[in-house]
Amino acid sequence: MAIAFDVAAQGLQMATVLTLAPCLVGLVRKVKARLLRRRGPSIFQPYRDLLRLLRKETVLAENASWLFRSAPYLIFATTWVAASLVPTFAAGLLFSWSGDLIAITALLGSARFFLALSGMDAGTSFGGIGASREMMFASLAEPAMIMIVFVVSLIAGSTQLSEVAAHMLSNFELRVSFGFALIGLAIVAIAENGRIPVDNPATHLELTMVHEAMVLEYSGRHLAMLELAADLKLLLYLSLIACIFAPWGIAPAGADLRLMAYGAAAYVVKLSIGGFSLALFEISTAKMRVFRVPEFLGAALMLGLLGTLLLFVSRGL
Amino acid sequence: MPLTLALWSVAALLGVGGIAIALNRSAAATRIIYGLCFGLSLLLFVSAVIPRGAVALTATLPLGLPWIGAHFRLDVLSAFFLAVVNLGGAAASFYAIGYGAHEKHPSRILPFFPAFLVGMNLVVLADDAFTFLVAWEFMSLSSWALVLAHHEVAENRQAAFIYLLMASFGTLALLMAFGLLAGSLGGYSFTAIREAVNEPWKFGPVLMLALLGAGSKAGLAPLHIWLPLAHPAAPSHVSALMSGVMTKVAVYGFVRIVFDLLGPPAFWWSIAPLTMGAVTAALGILYAIIQSDLKKLLAYSTIENIGVIFVALGLALAFKANGLALPAALAFTAALLHAFNHSLFKSVLFFGAGAVQNAAGERDIERLGGLIHPMPWTAFMLLGACLAISALPPLNGFVSEWLLFQAILLSPSLPQWSLKLIVPAVGAVLALSAALAAGCFVRAYGVTFLGRARSEAAIIARETDWWSIAAMSALLALCLLVGLLPSFMIDTISPAAKLFVGGRMPAQAEIPWLSIAPIAESRSTYNGLLIFIFIGISAFLTARAIHLFASRVTRRGPAWDCGYPDPSPLTEYTASSFAQPIRRTFGNLVFVARDHLDMPTPGDTRPARLGVEIRDRVFEGLYAPIARGVGFCASQLNKAQYMTIQGYLGLVFGALITLLLTVAIWP
Fold first, then answer.
1. Closest residue in chain A to residue B371, using alpha carbons only
2. Is B432 within 8 Å of chain A by CB?
3. Chain B residues in contact with A55 (beta carbon < 8 A)
4. Which helix or strand (DSSP H or E) is residue A60 part of?
5. Does B512 touch chain A (CB under 8 A)?
6. How many CA atoms, within 13 angstroms, populate the side-chain half-sphere of residue B553?
7. In whole angstroms, how far apart are CA A54 and each of A72, A211, B539?
8. Cβ contact (<8 Å) for B398 and A106?
9. Would you tell me which residues 266-295 of chain B have a C-beta closer than 8 angstroms to some C-beta of chain A?
10. pTM of the predicted model as reported, rounded to 2 decimal places
11. Nearest chain A residue (CA) to B565
12. Which residues of B touch A133 (CB under 8 A)?
């Protein structure tokens, strides 16, 4: 019985992240529109977009290979697994130990690897420019993320997210390095999800796009998979920030149904706050030039490094 | 028994070299020789992995210097490296059965290939300094001959010359290291060296000499300059051996001297390997990312991986010196596992590069493209190898990287301030080079295999032979296996860790679900198998569900490309434009890169030109002055050739007087 409950909780976690992800993107769009004094589409519009894409036929470029056709599913599956490894409403789920924070970062790296390759597959110049820029951003965002992982796990004594959440819940304290990690993680999240000021998810202005340039040749069900993967990635980063820096409400390992429901409610509140702050940040800033982005990400890397150094020097900082 | 088997196999390999000379003109020579090499390498591999007692096996043969003899020993460390060498050797021999058929002058390669294998095997088996150095030199010279196989190309001759110089320098450094270790009594057997108590002043020089000697063979910066020249010059199966295996033999040399022979370490020993390793890793991958020669790119990436291994070894030294046995075992395991992993995926990559070169007659990725269509198998194998080398889960490269990061996370417990400051920076550099490696291999793979063909050669390319594909798929399967079930590899390494750093990681194979959990207290775990199954199931189910319930209509059409697709492959993104953002971000610091834009004025019809100037700081800063110095001394000495007879007699007289005075004054 207990194992059935554990499996159900794990399955629920996978279903939760999948169903909430488009909604979160819809929420960010809605809030942005309202802040700009537009009415904006309903927060459920992303679901309709996905359904419409799924029903359409898929047009493949003449030159597209098997990699182009299988990559969307791989990217989606990898991102989905990574997102399900982050505790959302409950920690210590059945398979939560199969990957730690470093593995989650690397899984996102795998998804990015395939995305960049599929951008290059059609042999167009836009695909190449997108792939090249994405890898340049990643070459700074990923080490920044690893350094933030170092800070978090040096404080919590583990790279396992469930352990981190449990540690933060039991002895939460304000630390300098913790603040550095939060700012760094926010920068990385913005860059990795291609939000303003790094990239603009709503643009097709040719010279500025990064993520859109890579998926330019995709259509129909393949595009739906990639859109869903991008939504999942945004959800993943917000859940990650929530899990590490605001773990309140997360049901501990072995919790019953009531605690989990409480955790789910807290999670929805946290996501809404995260989506709202993202929208607020996005409308209050302008997109930066591509070659300013390394400086932006370099700041995250330096914050992470500084945080790690502080913790090496003294455990209390 | 295993040692006897190993030594007989090595002797037989030497005999195969002789047969190769005899079979010089025969058409079937290639298959016979490589087939024999394959079989003997497998035998050697078996002798490395069959269970032995905990005690090391030793043998003494009446070879070499008459009063010493040649000592051989098979302990846990040499058995591990023996397995690495012969796994790579067997795969390269098998690959060469197909690949060697394309060779124009097989007689330039066949005799030296088994000799090269003999050299590498004897280095890891040697148990006295004399045998070690002879085997080391044998390995260097036979690989030098292999680099010279295509000596009609001027570049290859220069590469071989520089390789020979660096190899001699490395051997000289090792010779002096062993000389210092053996002391005035000249106990050259490793047993005698191990038992001798070294005076403290010796530690620094021996450590430095070992770093220089082993590092010059492994490709540690700034001694790496020969790798990107020599590895592309050799035939691809030899490049795979040199890059994947010979560099590991050098790592073995370093581990043997520093962890075993030199005695208990002090903390400052770790600083040089840590910093040199980190610099090597960053420099290697930054150079790799701007290369357009496929094999040169792979050679630079080898340099990066060697840097990672040396960082892990440095960490192990630091932990061992402070008596932290468990973290030391973790770092040591990460180093050996990464050495093993790198030998697997780098061999696949070089095999693939060789297949591409044979198929398209071209190694310059700027003139390739779209090879995934004519060469689907090679493309698939190389995709796997690129994923593995970019340290992406669920393949093996990620596992060793993950272990290394876990070791770094334990290093705040190191008491020394210098290490507290160095280790986080080294960690950041490692993370940076891992991310850059992913960019580097996206570029290499994307430009070579994806997109449209950029030249006629890439259009007419055909799939490579089945021998090569079998060799690549076997190694790739091992990459996946080690990535999914790393616990068995970790348990295999742990006796070596126990012997050399005094601690062992908790037995991993007993952990439920075959996870790995290096440190019990931190509860950090990773399970590649489960992640692989999850990704596989969710990708499969999603694809099934979409094809069942949503649209499965597919149509082929011209690429969209924002409405202006251009049929010419000239409009494709090139390798150098792919690298441009990264070159611009990191380039000014490392390569002193400068772009020169020549833009004609309006009305002028000449084309605009963009030139990029990249300088090699290591070569210009270190090697060019040395070369100039040698040139200056040579031209000064040249004057001695044109002296009168009185002049020569005066010189002889002066030399005699100086020598006599020295003898007289010497206490």
1. A65
2. yes
3. 550-551
4. strand A58-61
5. no
6. 7
7. 13, 20, 16
8. yes
9. none
10. 0.95
11. A124
12. 581
Q: Point out the least confidently predicted range of B63-77, B309-323, B488-502.
A: B63-77
CB contact under 8 A, A122 and B543: no
Residues of B in contact with A142 (CB under 8 A): 431, 434-435, 438
Domain ranges, ordered by start, for chain A = 2-313
H or E segment to which residue B263 belongs: none
Q: Tell me whether the omega of the peptide bond preceding residue B394 falls within 30 degrees of 0, making it cis.
A: yes
Residue B392 and residue A106: Cβ atoms within 8 Å?
yes
Whole-angstrom CA distances from B524 to A158, A182, B544 are 6, 22, 34
CA dihedral B302, B306, B309, B311 (to 10 degrees): -130
- Determine the distance in angstroms separating the CA of A246 from the nearest CA of chain B, rounded to an integer: 21
Q: Which of A117, A147, A223 to mutate to test the interface with B (most CBs of B within 10 A)?
A: A117
CB contact (8 A) between residue A59 and residue B523 = no
Please tell me the distance from the alpha carbon of residue A124 to that of residue A212, in angstroms, as a whole number. 13
Average pLDDT per 10 consecutive residues for chain A, totaling 317 residues: 83 92 96 94 95 93 92 96 92 84 95 95 90 93 95 91 89 87 96 89 72 90 95 96 92 85 94 96 90 92 94 83
Residue from the list A109, A154, A160 with its beta carbon closest to the beta carbon of B392: A109
* pLDDT over 80 (residue B11): yes
> Hey, where are the domains in chain B?
344-541, 621-665
Residues in contact with B373: Cβ distance below 8 Å, sequence separation at least 6, in sequence order: A65
- Rounded distance, CA B114 to CA B15, Å? 9
Mean pLDDT value across chain B: 91
Q: Rounded to whole angstroms, how far apart are CA atoms B361 and B622?
A: 35
User: What Å distances lie between residue B649 and B149, B642, B643, B652, B654, CA to CA?
Assistant: 45, 13, 10, 5, 9
The alpha carbon of residue B152 and the mean position of all alpha carbons in its chain are separated, in whole angstroms, by 26
The residues, any chain, with a CB within 8 Å of residue B256's CB and separated by 6 or more, are B77, B190
Give burial (CB, 10 Å; 0-12/13-18/19+) of B100: buried
Point out the residue among A84, A102, A313 whose CB comes nearest to the CB of B402: A102
User: Is the CB of A99 less than 8 angstroms away from the CB of B383?
Assistant: no
Tell me which of A252-261, B344-353, B354-363 is least confident: A252-261
Query: Which residue in chain A is spatially nearest to B426 when comparing CA positions?
Result: A305
CA distance readout (Å), A285 to A27, A182, A288, B639 = 19, 19, 9, 73
Task: Render pLDDT for B579-636 as a digit per residue (tens, 0 to 9).
Answer: 988 888 887 777 777 788 888 888 888 888 888 888 888 888 889 999 999 999 999 9
The CA angle B180-B181-B182, to the nearest 5 degrees, is 95
% of chain B at pLDDT higher than 90: 67
Q: A139 and B439: CB-CB below 8 Å?
A: yes
**H helix or E strand, kind and range, residue A66:** helix A66-85
Query: Does residue B54 have a pLDDT over 80?
Result: no
Helix (H/G/I), strand (E/B), else coil: B451: coil
What tens digit of pLDDT does each residue of B156-169 get?
999 999 999 999 99
Q: Which of B431, B530, B556 sits opposite A142 (nearest CB)?
A: B431
> In chain A, what residues touch B447 (CB-CB under 8 Å)?
120
Per-residue model confidence (pLDDT) at position B243:
95
Q: What pLDDT, on a 0 to 100 scale, did the predictor assign at position B569?
A: 85
Q: What percent of chain B has pLDDT over 70?
A: 100
The dihedrals phi and psi of B635, each to the nearest 5 degrees, come to -70, -30
The minimum CA-CA distance between B537 and chain A, rounded to whole Å, is 8
Rounded-to-integer distance, Cα A49 and Cα A42, Å: 12
Q: What contacts B489, CB < 8 A, 6 or more positions away? A: B337, B340, B399, B482
Q: CB neighbours of B57 closer than 8 A, spacing ≥ 6?
A: B1, B2, B3, B73, B74, B75
Tell me, yes or no, if B534 comes closer than 8 A to chain A by beta carbon: yes
